[in-house]
Amino acid sequence: MNNQKQQKPTLTGQRFKTRKRDEKERFDPTQFQESIVQGLNQTGTDLEAVAKFLDASGAKLDYRRYAETLFDILVAGGMLAPGGTLSDDMTRTEFCLFTAQEDLETMQAYAQLLLFLKGFTESERNKLAMLTGILLANGNISASILSSLFNENLVKEGVSAAFAVKLFKSWINEKDINSVAASLRKVGMDNRLMELFPANKRSCEHFSKYFTDAGLKELSDFARNQQSIGARKELQKELQEMMARGDPQKEIIAFTKEEMKKASLSEQAMISIIWTSVMSSVEWNKKEELVTEQAIKHLKQYSPLLKAFTSQGLSELSLLLKIQEYCYDNIHFMKAFQKIVVLLYKADVLSEEAILKWYTEAHLAKGKSVFLEQMKKFVEWLKNAEEESESDEEEAD
């Protein structure tokens, strides 16, 4: 008799070795949360340290796969359960939007941190951009959060420009370009839109084509106009410095013509810049009786510069309007208008045709009655001189 016990059958079956290509990584948001929360709790509250941790973790953890979980953690501190509540049985982090200080500076920092992450898919980024555009249009958030789009890595990879297209389309659709312009000016970003592109593509031409092709011609025109304004301010500053140094007017004229060409400025735009530069290059006397004498002396000195940029009738008219505006805005110059115009007429900067056109139809409403009254006798003299000249020509014929 065989004393050995008979082995009972088992239900385990034969175990086969799984080939690596047949393995499929299990979707485990809980484990992902534990890894992220543990890391965040170790970094403390320093935003720079948090950003470094998240950036480094992106190489090991699949942000794209767990984008929703990551968003929950950074906003609410942990994964949200059905109904929008935080799961009680999960480890949480105090480093999240909902536990942050309630001030604009902190919110801006969180916005930069969230947009710095490249873990979201293109579709997810588009949705976030569209939502951000709507929130901006309705004043729910400040446009200062857009500073995060100028992150070097986002710009280099083209994420910033693509995000901006969706955002601005949504914003303009909700409001209009004027809303965008006002908000950007308020936070000092109206001149920074070119920075959405890498340095080698940072030009008006590239910006204009990119956003026009994307259906945002209004934004393209706004950016081009802002670039022009920026160039004008820089040119005005340089002209004032040249005048303050006492540079020869021939050099100033040559420099100005070159800069005018570079910036594609019209002569009308240029004469306005020159007038402002000339009038800003001196400290005016506070006494009204002395300021006129000082202005005449100063403008006589710079009449060759003004003459070099009034070769067209429209330029002369632009200059007259700038003079009128300046004299109206600066109370000490209210009585100096007529003397300034006569001086520039004698210096061949202004023609009688331009002065008469300004007097009869092209003047501004600012100080209209005062300045027209000042110019009345001189205009009558111009008209009489013109009539005498016509009579002489007829007699000669």
UniProtKB/TrEMBL annotation:
Q: Which GO terms describe its cellular component?
A: cytoplasm; membrane
Domain W2 stretches? 225-392
CDD domains, A to Z = W2_eIF5C_like
Report the domain of life of the source organism.
Answer: Eukaryota
Amino acid composition bias (Polar residues), ranges on this chain: 1-15
UniProt-listed PROSITE patterns: W2
GO BP annotations of the record are:
regulation of translational initiation
Q: Which key words tag this protein in UniProt?
A: Activator, Transcription, Transcription regulation, Translation regulation
> SMART domains of this UniProt entry?
eIF5C (SM00515)
Its transmembrane ranges are: none
The record ties this protein, via Pfam families, to: HEAT_5MP1_2 (PF25504), W2 (PF02020)
> InterPro entries, alphabetically?
ARM-type_fold, eIF5-mimic_regulator, HEAT_5MP1_2, W2_5MP1/2, W2_domain
Record region (Disordered): 1-28
Q: What protein family is recorded?
A: Belongs to the BZW family.
Q: What is this protein called?
A: Basic leucine zipper and W2 domains 1a
